[in-house]
């Protein structure tokens, strides 16, 4: 699907509406399939007390409910800003292959959001003061993976 500015205009309006609603940050998102909006979302971090309630995440959850699937293959996502690492991961997990965005991660950093800092942490090999990430007790957690793999073999 080719880029259509009317869908970005909707995402931008959702972001602007969120500035006055106070639900969260100035971020909006629209998910389109077959040239139809199937879901939209805006940042709801503050109203939901949920740090994962970004516009893209909210829209992806709604799209999954509308389509009754976790696989959003064939959908296109329009978002008012470059997706943060969490949203980017969710987009990839949802099998969305095309994303159009407005503002950059640098634009978000300039108004106080940490997207760019998280990308820098990832680029630095997950090293630094952002997060202490440490593996322990794999022998306790691996059996669930083995059981899942065995279950999948019997199902397919």
UniProtKB/TrEMBL annotation:
GO terms classed as biological process: purine nucleoside catabolic process
A molecular-function term among this protein's GO annotations: guanosine deaminase activity
Entry keyword set: Hydrolase, Metal-binding, Zinc
CMP/dCMP-type deaminase domain: residues covered: 3-116
Membrane-spanning segments: none
InterPro entries: APOBEC/CMP_deaminase_Zn-bd (IPR016192), CMP_dCMP_dom (IPR002125), Cytidine_deaminase-like (IPR016193)
Entry keyword annotation includes Metal-binding: yes
Cited CDD domains: nucleoside_deaminase
Family recorded in the similarity comment: Belongs to the cytidine and deoxycytidylate deaminase family.
Official protein name in the record: Guanine deaminase
């Amino acid at each position: 699907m080719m880029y259509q500015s009317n869908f970005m205009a909707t995402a931008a309006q959702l972001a602007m509406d969120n500035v006055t609603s106070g639900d969260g940050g100035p971020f909006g998102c629209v998910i389109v399939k077959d040239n139809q909006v199937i879901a939209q979302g805006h940042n709801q971090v503050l109203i939901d007390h949920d740090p994962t309630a970004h516009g893209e995440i909210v829209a992806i959850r709604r799209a999954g409910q509308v389509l009754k699937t976790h696989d959003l293959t064939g959908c296109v996502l329009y978002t008012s800003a470059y997706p943060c690492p969490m949203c980017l991961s969710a987009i990839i997990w949802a099998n969305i292959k095309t994303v159009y965005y407005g503002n950059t991660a640098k634009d978000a950093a300039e108004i106080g959001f940490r997207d760019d800092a998280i990308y820098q942490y990832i680029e630095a090999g997950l090293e630094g003061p952002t997060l202490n990430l440490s593996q322990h007790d794999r022998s306790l957690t691996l059996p669930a993976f083995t059981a899942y793999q065995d279950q999948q073999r019997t199902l397919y």
